[in-house]
């Protein structure tokens, strides 16, 4: 009886400590968001850049391949040019969007006026009050363009990526020096390589798929004549990194512009059908084929991760939720006492460990 009581007491103590540790961790993530968010983005960009560098290293003739230094320069140039192109488009169209916004608002007000005729006096008054509270003319441009904070965060992320590139070359040597046993050092190195390869594979495939989605969506928007198609294509590319919800938002924003831009509903309907078809084909056909077993994650776990990180870190947390979930799954799969967590997070309970065939003790 005494042993049973002591056992229950120990379980309660461990549970209490786990809850306290979880609370401290969540509080730290929330309070340290200004520091942790740029660092997390930098780690993901670093992994993407490393994947790009590895792709350039495979370029060559016969047995000769590009040196890593040349491949790194090419990768950095590609990333810088991509960032410059995106920033140029966004800031180049910022004034045009702000100038066109009153016209969109007037059109939306007219549509709301037509809609309220069907709602009666009471419903009409509620809609008008809601519309006045939203105040699109004042709020949306300020939300879309906060140049100063964006540039500061971007500079911080670039600095982090530079230091990570410099430190990454010495990672294996550091890991080997941490352990006296060569076998343990090899297992830990394999674990880190597995984590890095899985994250890089996910980011690389997701980036290519998002580029394809944004490119095809841009073509459709240009054919229909939607204003600022370049900006919406970039937004679609970014939103495609958010599971499930991102696809809905990627269709919603350009569709709303088409609704207030054109006098008829035909362009709006055509745009919605076209963008929805693209999202469905990419999300349900192409992406699962390319991902294969790379992302054997439970859809329910993805939704929970999306909600948790969105609550802690906002929109940025939604972008980071799946890479963080993949990292947690791989780490738990290699630690025997945590393996059950990896099984719960997987889609079908099958956990692959490509490099480290045995768990780390």
Briefly say what this structure is.
The protein is 82% helix and 1% strand.
What does this structure look like?
The protein has 13 helices and 2 strands; from the N terminus they run H-H-E-E-H-H-H-H-H-H-H-H-H-H-H. By secondary structure, the protein is mainly alpha-helical. Among the domains are: 1-31; 38-169, no CATH class. It has a two-stranded antiparallel sheet. Strand 1 (60-61) and strand 2 form a beta hairpin. It is globular and about 75 Å long. The two termini are 34 Å apart. Residues 353-361 have low confidence and may be disordered.
Blueprint (SSEs and pairs):
Blueprint: H1 2-31, H2 33-57, E1 60-61, E2 64-65, H3 68-116, H4 120-134, H5 136-144, H6 147-168, H7 171-178, H8 182-224, H9 229-239, H10 245-261, H11 266-291, H12 299-333, H13 339-345
Antiparallel strand pairs: 1-2
Helix pairs in contact: 2-3, 2-6, 2-8, 2-12, 3-4, 7-8, 8-9, 8-11, 8-12, 9-10, 10-11, 12-13
Element-level helix/strand string: HHEEHHHHHHHHHHH
Number of strands: 2
Shape annotation: globular
What's the arrangement of strands in the largest beta sheet? 1-2
Low-confidence stretches: 353-361
Summarize model confidence as the mean pLDDT: 76
What portion of residues is helical? over 70%
What keywords describe this structure?
single chain; 361 residues; 13 helices; 1% strand; disordered C terminus
């Amino acid at each position: 009886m005494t042993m049973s009581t002591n056992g229950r007491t120990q379980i309660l103590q461990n549970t209490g400590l786990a809850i306290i540790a979880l609370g401290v961790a969540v509080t730290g993530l929330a309070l340290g968001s200004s520091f942790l968010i740029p660092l997390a983005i930098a780690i993901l960009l670093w992994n993407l850049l490393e994947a790009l560098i590895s792709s350039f290293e495979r370029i060559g003739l016969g047995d000769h391949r590009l040196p890593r230094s040349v491949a790194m320069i090419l990768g950095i140039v590609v990333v810088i040019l991509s960032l410059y192109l995106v920033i140029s488009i966004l800031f180049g169209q910022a004034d045009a969007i702000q100038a066109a916004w009153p016209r969109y608002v007037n059109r939306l007000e007219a549509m709301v006026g037509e809609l309220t005729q069907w709602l009666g006096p009471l419903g009409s008054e509620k809609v008008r009050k809601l519309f006045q509270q939203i105040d699109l003319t004042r709020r949306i441009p300020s939300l879309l363009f906060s140049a100063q904070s964006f540039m500061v965060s971007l500079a911080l992320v670039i600095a982090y990526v530079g230091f990570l590139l410099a430190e990454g070359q010495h990672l294996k040597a550091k890991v080997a020096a941490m352990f006296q046993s060569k076998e343990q050092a090899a297992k830990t190195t394999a674990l880190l390589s597995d984590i890095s390869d899985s994250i890089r594979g996910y980011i690389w495939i997701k980036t290519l798929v998002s580029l394809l989605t944004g490119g095809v969506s841009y073509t459709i928007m240009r054919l229909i004549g939607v204003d600022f198609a370049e900006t919406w294509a970039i937004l679609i590319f970014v939103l495609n990194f958010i599971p499930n919800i991102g696809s809905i938002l990627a269709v919603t924003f350009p569709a709303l512009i088409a609704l207030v831009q054109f006098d008829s509903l035909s362009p709006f309907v055509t745009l919605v059908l076209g963008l929805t078809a693209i999202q469905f084909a990419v999300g349900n056909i192409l992406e699962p084929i390319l991902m294969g077993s790379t992302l054997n994650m439970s859809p329910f776990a993805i939704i929970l991760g999306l909600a948790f990180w969105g609550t802690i870190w906002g929109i940025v947390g939604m972008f980071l939720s799946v890479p963080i979930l993949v990292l947690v799954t791989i780490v738990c799969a290699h630690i025997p006492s945590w393996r059950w967590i990896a099984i719960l997070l997987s889609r079908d309970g099958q956990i692959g460990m490509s490099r480290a065939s045995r768990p780390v003790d």
